[in-house]
Amino acid sequence: MDKNISFTLKVWRQNGPKDKGHFDTFQMKDIPGDTSFLEMLDILNEQLVEGGKEPVVFDHDCREGICGMCSLYINGHPHGPATGATTCQIYMRRFKDGDVITVEPWRSAGFPVIKDLMVDRTAYDKIMQAGGFVSVRTGAPQDANAILIPKPIADEAMDAASCIGCGACVAACKNGSAMLFVSAKVSQLNLLPQGKPEALRRAKAMLSKMDELGFGNCTNTRACEAECPKCVSISNIARLNRDFIKAKLKD
Amino acid sequence: MWLSNSSIGRKVVMSVTGIALVLFLTFHMAMNCVALVSGEAYNMVCEFLGANWYALVATVGLAALFVIHIIYAFWLTVQNRAARGSERYAVTSTPKNVEWASQNMLALGVIVILGVALHLFNFWYKMQFAEIIGNPMMGGLHAADGYGYILQTFGCPVYFVLYIVWLVALWFHLTHGFWSAMQTLGWNNTLWINRWKCISNIYSTIVVLGFMLVAVVFFLKGLCCGAC
Amino acid sequence: MTKIIDSKIPEGPIAEKWTNYKAHQKLVNPANKRRLDIIVVGTGLAGASAAASLGEMGFRVFNFCIQDSPRRAHSIAAQGGINAAKNYQNDGDSVYRLFYDTVKGGDYRAREANVYRLAEVSNNIIDQCVAQGVPFAREYGGTLANRSFGGAQVSRTFYAKGQTGQQLLLGAYSALSRQVGAGTVKLYTRYEMEDVVIVDGRARGIIAKNLVTGKLERFAAHAVVIATGGYGNAYFLSTNAMACNCTAAMACYRKGAWFANPAYVQIHPTCIPVHGDKQSKLTLMSESLRNDGRIWVPKKIEDAKALQAGTKKGSDIPEEDRDYYLERRYPAFGNLVPRDVASRAAKERCDKGFGVNNTGLAVFLDFSESIERLGIDVVRQRYGNLFDMYEEITDVNPGQLANEIKGVKYYNPMMIYPAIHYTMGGIWVDYELQTSIKGLFAIGECNFSDHGANRLGASALMQGLADGYFVLPYTIQNYLADQITVPRFSTDLPEFAAAEKAVQDKIDHLMNIKGKKSVDSIHKELGHVMWEYVGMGRTAEGLKTGLAKLKEIRKEFETQLFIPGSKEGMNVELDKAIRLQDFITMGELIAYDALNRNESCGGHFREEYQTEEGEAKRDDQNFFYVACWEYQGSDEKAPTLLKEPLVYEAIKVQTRNYKS
């Protein structure tokens, strides 16, 4: 069975978007290796509450790696040291006895801190509202098999669609760019025949919303792709670039 | 104008100017290599590219490419730093697949600019510029005596080392810049990314090696003759 | 006092009821739609699809969710798929067969007319989702692929990798986003509904807490729709997300909406077993694993003892000593029996001492046979992400060859155990999805209507989207057609002020208890009591003990609770405390219903009522009804029971049989 470990935890505390913020340091003792990272924070919070203090605030929900709510920057990596996993799927056996674990919120102008480790990601919703959809009315479509979609296309769309909107790409990007997120949604819909009629308009609308919200310019460092918990590829960014350039040349 | 007010547009400008500059480098490298074969031939090329109207037009165009590339680079960097927010991470760590060059393009670019400045002073100022102002002997040798200037410059160990540093920075800058430009222009996918990266590395290496070869050969020549 | 429960089921043969209803219902014309406001609480499959569809129709919609974005709703976690009666596989499927399977799977406790309508619109859902760009799995020919699922003999489940719920939710979320962009829907994120406001007997608004500022805010509308999911977290450990709660449903219940069949709680058979007391949730492994995985425990008790002691591993036990108990007991359906049957069979084995982990509460799910038959590549292609997830959590790789005995290769088996997963019970609704309060509607998991006593796999997504896209947007108009002359409401009405004050008083009260115990520690105690006495195997005596213990927990909550910080600004502990108070009430409601229902059916298993073979024994004579519970003015008082008799016209009620 897993061993218990003890370590030092440095956690970012910030009481609201305007507050300066600082690190609090905690000594964690005898944490079982099969505890998830968030459960470890639960243990910390339980101790804090028992001591009459306010718990560390962080976003979390499904705790099975799919909702995209959890968003911790652990030891220099969004979602911590594992690849292809969200924060909630990190288990303490990945850390060693005596480690110093630093936990920070996503840091980006597009994602202001709400409190402690919780950030505001409504910018992603706004980008979606600008064009992340197929304009189809409820109740009117034709039979689902009426348009055949080759399996490779469907699979590629599915890979792009597996984005969970967590914001790790922005958190990882030295440019604070949301291109991986935007391109994943644009790719998914632009690849499928159902999304083709609006493909160019979608690329333009979602990109300009992203720019407007203050996200940075992509410089192809590939940090987003490396840190993405769902391994979304930057080839989606190339597709977005292609569609966007095509759209602008057409105008 | 989408080339200035959209993030992809701005990147397209970077890519297109970047690719044009890569082509210029290729041409320049090829021209330099002529010097390895024959000083006379090289000087003929120099004469051909003196203060003629076509050479001047090309020079102005080239300068424009440089200036646009540089201005956009600084502009993008300022925007990107703002997008990053005011607070910085206390602990950072670079993932394995992230190339060092890709995260330091501006710093590399600045080294390249300094190198270009040095280069302009060493050669262009004494050659084409000297001809333009009608004082061909301004640099000590005749403006079309490129071969002589090469000998003079690389004969000096200080210049030689500076040029090597410059070329190394250029190599890093190109290895990322080349495939990155293709990615920005949308000519990429999961298959092509590795091809482009391979092509970038080989191409950058050929270009930079070509330049270096000239520098090394003439540095060695200088050692033998004891110039500077 | 007898109330007559009118479920408003339309006249006519079952196959024509919905068509007839739509043909004769009242509609609202476009100009009037603009004048009518609708509040939709929740942005899961049901909530998002309803808000999007209503907004698109022209109503002014206010949509609320407690997370930072609609896309986080827990519908996203559904892995397996969504059912529809398309019969694309030519294996004899039809609307009737889907209807029949769902009613049978629900152990004949669902309302027939609702289920038929669900089966009827199931095909529209697939069409709709494909049109939205949901990337369902496809065959090489370009047509949609299907897989089979528990409780059915046809392949009718559509899927998108292991992320069907996510993809369907993203589809609904994108439709919703389109409407938000168009201005027909106004979205409020990080808001939690705390109460429903009733004006002259009709639901006219809600009181919601802004979770960031901590302030209470009032919202008024002509109708209120709640789509706030189930109450599984009353058990503390469940497969539900951390924020899933029943506060909105309890608010409706306290204002007079009946709560139906709370005892029907689904226990999912394939979850990763509990490992320690620090655990915060249980992780589900998709039911689709049962397509190729075989469930077993050792035949010999000494092998089980060795496994529990850790001196043996699963792969050390040869084929002949393995008891594939589902295949043994249910030859016709084997490992694909419905969830309740599979869960109970696992519990039965573990209760007899055959559990295979250190707690004795786990069974094996083994892929050795399918890896040998299909090759590891094919198996990984199907379940690779689940294998990886399992390995990350448990440090065991189920695809790894572990042993070879007499030429037979044995791979590491997974360990699984049942866990609370879904709640079939919920707010009572009529055929129009309207609750017993006029103008208050409930859709998705938070209503009770379609699954009876047990839900089949891949049916939850179907119901959420059916309600949201295809049912509620029609039926709500039948109500709103009378409301077109009613002007917009002011939130200054005394009813709003009173409701807000009541919530504020409750918050002040909780903050002022100033005891010593954290919310989570009390919630864990609640979970233990619920699982122990109101869990998988229930007895009258146990339920009575459970009810007594729940009273103690309520007392402890009222006297020992400690919430740090203040009520101003964000206070996650306060938010959890409000939810916990409702979970306690909910727990009691489950226990009351379970105690009342002296039979075993679907997700409700009373140990006193079983056949000699240990199967659930229904009592159609006495319990062929929907149990509706009515609030009696105080959480301390027991609720009163109202009965909606079930009337089956199309299906002959019989004993469920998955053996032959």
Molecular structure report:
The complex is a heterotrimer of chains A (251), B (228) and C (660). With 251 residues, chain A is of the alpha+beta class. Chain A folds into two domains: 101 residues, Ubiquitin-like (UB roll) (Roll), CATH 3.10.20; 129 residues, Fumarate Reductase Iron-sulfur Protein, Chain B, domain 2, CATH 1.10.1060. In chain A, the strands form two sheets. A five-stranded mixed sheet of chain A has the order 2-1-5-3-4. The longest helix of chain A has 16 residues. The model of chain A has no long low-confidence stretch (mean pLDDT 96). Chain B contains ten helices and no strands. Chain C is an alpha+beta fold. A five-stranded parallel sheet of chain C has the order 5-2-1-9-19, with helices on both faces. In chain C, α15 runs antiparallel to α16. Classes of the chains: A alpha+beta (251), B mainly alpha (228), C alpha+beta (660). Chains A and C meet through α1, α2 and α3 of A and α3, α5, α6, α12 and α13 of C.
Features:
heterotrimer, A: 251 residues, alpha+beta, Ubiquitin-like (UB roll), Fumarate Reductase Iron-sulfur Protein, Chain B, domain 2, two-stranded antiparallel ribbon, B: 228 residues, 3 helical TM bundles of succinate and fumarate reductases, 0% strand
